[in-house]
Write a sequence for this structure.
């Protein structure tokens, strides 16, 4: 920008932090994602699920570990290709299912996008349907876990 | 380092010299150019001078220069205005697939009103295929519109070759007309309308260090256009509304200044552009350049980064004070990937990971070196988050 033209006006006089396209919570989870799976080598998950495709702009993968006695999610790791809200919503979902000692599988499989968006402090309207897909990857991971357990029980 | 603005193809700052030229026309010389008294004659003369100065650069006559409210408005007037005024000759229009939305949406609007639109294909570098144009010209084709240089990938079209094809096809007729959207080319490439062989040419102020909210349409004498804004009959009856004197003066001054320095500035930007592209392709794996390697605007860099989504990349760079744009679907209002990147046949996942960096007069090597330092860090971070390997 032309530094000679600044007339001593600071950008913060005109544009405050709220102008960011997403909420503060989304921003926090985007820049500091929680429960990211750094390296899948050697990570033994009880269930794995993936949804979306890079061509569509969003793809999420999710790995879960389950406490077999309580049926609660102990760990939820993920990786996401997508925009800031896709990354933040997957991160938030992983927090939701692991906080307070973990969510039981029944409840976790019923989580819907609205609940995630509420916890994120809202999303722009046009991002509602495309960027919140993490619950589908999670549902797949839960199914994967359940079918593995069923097969093991045979 | 902060505030590294690399989005000059979106818009530029107003040059201080342009700004100073505009200033007196806000509160001091404020008369309506249509008024006969001195206050009006002063602003009338200012507009006349601006028009004459632009005409000189275009190699045109004064009366062929029409001021509008934006590049979009000029594009609309050229496409819709020419279509509606020339229906006697036909209702077929040809545009390229990589036109700016101001042209594409105008064409779409005409389609609803019974006009037939043919979209020209481009090759994978974004060049219109001349053979494709030859095949698609028809007796009832009334207008061809091909963008001079593309705003996303910077590809420069062979405008003179295209106008030759059209002239040969016309023979002794006036139809079809040829329009070019030169918003990205103004101040960079020649705007000589006779060399280019165009009947209509669009450019605006906001890309050439001039003000936003002002555009220009060159209209070759004898070209029939139906005005889209009617009223007091200003601008040779083609665009009514009291003339926006300060902005018109600013547009003219901005173009003059750009013309004076363009040779030197183009050379400087091309060097910086190619330095950056070479370094980026070498230092970061799975990155590719979109567009043409030579027939390219001096300030345009458009790359695709595998495994990373463009909006995320843009927002991460923004955090480091680097401002760019993206062709990814997530960042667009209609949630589809850039029509330009689709037209050049880029894989959708690579189009999702595209960013555009466009240099400006104040972009130097120091700034680009900073970007070269930050970009790999940001890409690495996003690739670690990404589920696409």
């Amino acid at each position: 920008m032309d530094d000679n033209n600044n007339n001593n006006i600071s950008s913060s006089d005109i544009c405050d932090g709220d102008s960011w396209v997403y909420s503060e919570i989304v921003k926090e989870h985007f820049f500091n994602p929680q429960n990211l799976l750094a390296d899948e080598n050697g990570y033994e998950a009880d269930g794995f699920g993936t949804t979306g495709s890079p061509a569509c702009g969003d793809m999420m993968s999710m790995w879960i570990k389950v406490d077999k006695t309580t049926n609660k999610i102990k760990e939820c790791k993920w990786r996401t290709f997508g925009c800031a809200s896709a990354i933040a919503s997957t991160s938030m979902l992983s927090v939701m299912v692991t906080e307070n000692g973990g969510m039981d599988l029944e409840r976790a499989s019923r989580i819907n996008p609205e609940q995630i968006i509420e916890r994120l402090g809202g999303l722009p309207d046009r991002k509602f349907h495309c960027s919140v897909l993490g619950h589908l990857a999670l549902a797949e991971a839960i199914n994967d876990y359940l079918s593995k357990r069923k097969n093991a029980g045979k | 380092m902060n505030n590294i603005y690399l989005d000059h193809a979106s818009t530029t700052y107003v040059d201080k010299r342009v700004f100073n030229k505009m200033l007196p026309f806000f509160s001091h010389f404020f008369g309506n150019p249509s008024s006969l008294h001195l206050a009006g004659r002063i602003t009338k003369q200012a507009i006349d001078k601006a028009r004459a100065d632009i005409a000189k650069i275009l190699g045109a006559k004064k009366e062929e220069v029409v001021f509008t409210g934006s590049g979009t408005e000029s594009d609309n007037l050229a496409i819709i205005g020419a279509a509606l005024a020339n229906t006697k000759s036909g209702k077929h229009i040809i545009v390229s697939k990589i036109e700016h939305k101001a042209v594409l949406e105008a064409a779409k609007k005409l389609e609803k009103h019974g006009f037939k639109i043919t979209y020209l294909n481009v090759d994978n570098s974004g060049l219109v295929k001349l053979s494709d144009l030859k095949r698609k010209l028809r007796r009832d084709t009334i207008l061809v519109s091909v963008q001079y240089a593309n705003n996303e990938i910077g590809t420069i079209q062979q405008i003179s070759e295209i106008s030759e094809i059209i002239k040969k096809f016309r023979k002794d007729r006036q139809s079809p007309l040829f329009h070019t959207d030169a918003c990205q080319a103004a101040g960079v490439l020649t705007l000589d309308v006779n060399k280019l062989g165009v009947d209509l040419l669009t450019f605006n102020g906001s890309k050439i260090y001039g003000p936003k909210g002002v555009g220009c349409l060159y209209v070759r004498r004898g070209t029939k256009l139906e005005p889209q804004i009617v009223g007091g009959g200003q601008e040779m009856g083609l665009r009514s509304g009291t003339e926006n004197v300060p902005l018109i003066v600013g547009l003219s001054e901005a173009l003059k200044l750009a013309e004076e320095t363009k040779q030197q500035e183009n050379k400087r930007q091309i060097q910086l552009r190619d330095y950056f592209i070479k370094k980026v392709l070498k230092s970061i794996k799975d990155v590719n350049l979109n567009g043409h390697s030579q027939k390219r605007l001096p300030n345009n860099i458009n790359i695709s980064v595998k495994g990373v989504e463009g909006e995320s990349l843009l927002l991460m760079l923004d955090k480091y004070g680097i401002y760019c744009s993206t062709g990814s679907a997530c960042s667009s209002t209609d949630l589809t990937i850039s029509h330009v990147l689709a037209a050049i046949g880029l894989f959708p996942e690579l189009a999702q990971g595209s960013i555009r960096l466009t240099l400006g007069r104040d972009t130097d090597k120091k700034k680009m070196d900073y970007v070269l330092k930050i970009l790999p860090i940001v890409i690495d971070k996003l690739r670690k988050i990404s589920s696409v390997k």
User: Anything to note?
Assistant: The interface with chain B takes residues 1-5, 21, 30-31, 33, 36, 38, 50, 53-61, 78-87, 126-127, 130-131 of chain A (CB under 8 Å). Helices of chain A lie at 11-14, 24-31, 84-98, 105-108, 113-119, 134-153. The two ends of chain A are 68 Å apart (CA to CA). Residues 134-153 of chain A form the longest helix (20 residues).
